[in-house]
Specification:
With 303 residues, the protein is α+β, with helices and mostly antiparallel strands. It contains 6 helices and 13 strands. The protein is elongated.
């Protein structure tokens, strides 16, 4: 049987597999996929991908929330506050912004049905989406779009729509898995927590923040909720340049929020319920507030 060759274009916005990724497929016409870990979603919003019509996915290892919008930036920003279980986001759109309301209704509905059928749909998700209104000709085009979208997702290890995860294109996904392992070590927060715990770290499991090094900017960026300061607080910094996890332990109420009397952490200007922290890679100082986090380092774990 003759196989149809194709090329995959991969753009790494941070120069590695750590941050926002854009993928195009030569068989996908104008389709494009953007992927981002949760902590880099603000960078995703700045790519321009979210200014188009499209479908977005909120993902954990075994669960997905499917949504669609003509204002993807607004919807993803809302989910940063409203849902805390997801670890990464995917945006499915087109280079020429050629999708319309009916198109994204259809794409959303198909993906919701796929996830619901294999019990991987988030319980907050609508069961059916908006009723799609596409004619038989447009349906063929959108089904082709979805086929390529699912293929590209499999290439980067997103298999929540596959009942049998072994059905992913094995040769390519094996190569991608090796690259991810070399570049990222422990990629998701649950993996990092498990790895750190297995290697002797004592974590405030229910009050742990996680950040991956933004190598191009030299800092770890986290936006925890204000309430983290009220209890013992752990931070895991994934330094991918040195392949190590840096574990920080901050006692309850040790650090304050900045006010007229206290030097302290800064609140985000756009979201008053979140703290804005950028811990430098070299000295572990928060470049926003000037607070030194190096004194809270519990241990460093190589991976």
């Amino acid at each position: 049987m003759d196989l149809k060759a194709k090329t995959i274009n991969l753009l790494l916005y941070d120069g590695n597999l750590n941050g926002v990724i854009s993928i195009e497929d030569s068989s996908w016409n104008s389709g494009e996929l953007y992927s981002s870990p949760r902590e880099s979603v603000s960078d995703l919003l700045n790519t321009g991908a979210c200014n188009k019509y499209g479908v977005y996915l909120l993902l954990s290892e075994e669960m997905v929330y499917v949504g669609q919008s003509s204002d993807l930036a607004k919807r993803l920003s809302q989910h940063m506050i409203g849902k805390d279980w997801w670890e990464s986001a995917v945006v499915l759109t087109t280079k020429d912004d050629s999708l319309n309301h009916s198109d994204i209704d259809y794409i959303e509905t198909v993906l919701i049905e796929k996830a619901f059928a294999i019990k991987r749909l988030d319980c907050d998700n609508k069961k059916k989406g908006n009723p799609p209104k596409v004619d038989k000709f447009r349906k063929v085009i959108l089904d082709q779009y979805l086929e390529e979208a699912l293929f590209v997702m499999q290439l980067i290890g997103i298999n929540v729509f596959n009942e049998d995860k072994k059905s992913a294109p094995k040769a390519l996904i094996d190569v991608m898995s090796v690259n991810v392992k070399l570049s990222l070590g422990k990629r998701t927060k649950p993996e990092a927590v498990q790895y750190a715990t297995e290697h002797g770290a004592k974590l405030a499991t229910k009050n742990t923040s996680y950040a991956v090094l933004r190598a191009d900017k030299g800092y770890f960026w986290i936006n925890p909720k204000l309430k983290v300061l009220d209890s013992d607080w752990s931070i895991i910094l994934n330094d991918t340049s040195s392949s190590e996890l840096v574990i920080l332990s901050i006692p309850a109420n040790r650090i304050k929020i900045q006010d007229e009397k206290n030097k302290g952490l800064r609140i985000r200007k756009d979201k008053s319920e979140l703290i804005d922290i950028k811990i430098s890679q070299d000295k572990y100082v928060d470049t926003v507030s000037g607070i030194d986090f190096s004194k809270y380092i519990q241990m460093k774990i190589k991976y």
